[in-house]
Protein: D-3-phosphoglycerate dehydrogenase
Organism: Coccomyxa viridis
Amino acid sequence: MQHVRLGGAALQMPVAASCRRCHMNSWSAVERCYRGVLASTSSTVSTGASLAPVRRVGLRQATRAAASPVVAVAASERPTILVTEKLGEPGIELLQQIGDVDKAYNLTPEQLQEKIATADALIIRSATQVTKEVFQAAGGRLKVVGRAGVGVDNVDLASATDMPPPLCQPSPSTCKQRAPHGCLVVNAPTANTVAAAEHGIALICALSRNVAQADASVKAGKWERTKYVGVSIVGKTLAIMGFGKVGSEVARRGTGLGFANVIAYDPYASEVKAAALGVKLVSWEEALAQGDFFSLHMPQTPQTKGMFNDDAFSKMKKGARVVNVARGGVIDEAALARALDNGQVAQAALDVFSKEPPPPDNPLIGRSDVVCTPHLGASTTEAQEGVALEIAEAVVSALKGELAATAVNAPMVPAEVLAELQPFCQLAQGLGTAAVQLVGSHGFTDIHITYATSRGDDLDTRLLRAMVIKGILEQITTSTVNLVNADLLAKNRGLRIRETFVSAEGKGVLASLKVSLGTSDTKFSAALGTDKRISVAGTVKGTQSYLTRVGTFDVDLSLQGIILLTRQLDKPGVIAAVANVLSKEGVNISYMSVSVTPDNDAVMALGLDQEPPEEVLDQLPSLEGITETCVLAEKL
Ligand SMILES: NC(=O)c1ccc[n+]([C@@H]2O[C@H](COP(=O)([O-])OP(=O)(O)OC[C@H]3O[C@@H](n4cnc5c(N)ncnc54)[C@H](O)[C@@H]3O)[C@@H](O)[C@H]2O)c1
Ligand SMILES: O=C(O)[C@H](O)COP(=O)(O)O
């Protein structure tokens, strides 16, 4: 017998001539199939997103969150590394030390599918779409995709994780149980942060002094000194919308530019971190009302998509200025064009667009009051060298079969721990996702996880804790959370994590799990426990996760799909009135659970088959007896 270390687990397996699962012979075939067993023991787990102005959260989403624990497979021979977008030379040199680098830029989707079958690793930036078809065309050879930058929105992570194995795909005669082979995806999350922040600052300055327009005018032979009078920055308020890595670097620089105030809206940011940078965290409404310049730095998620819409622009000061180096989709582009038309927004500077490159009919690119750059945020020599090195190191270690610290789709966990705790992963992530949805606009400060277990503090909580953090942070950041980075990401955000064990004799490894968040503000007051913290608890019945408690109210319904929570007086007709409003719109109720206190306060939890339209949700609070409502929804 030989011990093989896979993703941190020492597994015993025979150095066999052929694999019992697919009959492939050779050591690597056995290894690959064994890894497939690991991967296939996990199921797709849930996530979604939730943001303060929106009331939706995903409890089950199968793309970015597909958390099958894939591990990198060591390449046996000198690997081929396909690079499809320009990568800094230091990175190329590092890659050449261990493999053959094939630089092939500007490939069509068809050409990429053709070439990918020859590659062990693929390195991309934001322009290469790595689709399901690409992973299928890889035929199992591709071991790692390296994204030289932050955003992995152009990589189909679910397909990467579930990539079919080589040779034994998909012939039932050679492999009866299809085991996902998995392709590791790694990114370079930090090396371009400063470059993006500097570009944001450059656009703020360019906008305030009409640099781009005046340049074009002079080059057109004109000398229009009165036309291009600008506005000063001094004395103005800079509103940072999204106070993460890039946003906080813009804030740091904004103070030095002379802005009188730098404020930030980010419901999940740490007040301590903001205060240390001299930044005041404010609510969405306050930010819109106070900002003169808006610099956008939130990730694009289903919840942030189009959050700068007609309503948002109408709440800004007349003549506000908007800069976007985040993602094009956070702005409703037609709404911005309308706001510019009526002078509500004076000018905008955009590095990113909902579709890139923007088609000629994009309502913003032809305007003289809009400055555009072609997604240049990360494009400095220094950032590209840094990103190239960061990604080359990650790809090299992945190809060597080592742990990749910036793995996007690879929680590493010993097989025996995985097998035991896997049923509780979905619960842990679902509770994290539900809890963060209940947070109000002031964010939260810490996470407290309570495990009811017969193991006491012998329980290995790394995986469950990571899944709770994943459920919370993947709703609100660009980070992809896994076992490797979960604690660090939480720490970096100033989130304290506390774990408590309560005894649950005879109930198996985990009887129940509770997640509570420290906050002064909630969207659903019934979610506040007696300790004035938002708390949700759940359990696993069979293989299914159940929500069993919201605040001090007992509930009992499947923790998936769309959940409508209502708080109400316990009196005849209230439940029927809610059901009536839903049924009129054809919204089916599949589960229901009502919890009542002695003083007639009740919480009802309804599992719905589809998301209720906004008009329906708007009617509910006005029904007699209903005091508050909240939806935990998903978007598949
Ligand atoms: N233009 C470029 O070339 C370029 C370069 C780097 C990053 N980016 C983009 O910039 C954005 C920020 O990147 P980052 O590295 O700072 O990410 P990050 O995850 O460090 O920060 C994102 C922040 O947004 C906050 N947030 C989430 N939802 C929010 C909401 N509804 N309202 C306000 N804040 C919200 C999060 O709490 C987090 O603090 C991302 O979209 C990223 O893709 C663009
Ligand atoms: O997500 C990122 O890192 C930035 O948007 C930069 O993208 P790029 O590498 O294509 O410039």
About this structure: The chain has three domains: 73-170+179-192+378-409, 197-371, 450-632. The chain is about 30% helix and 20% strand.
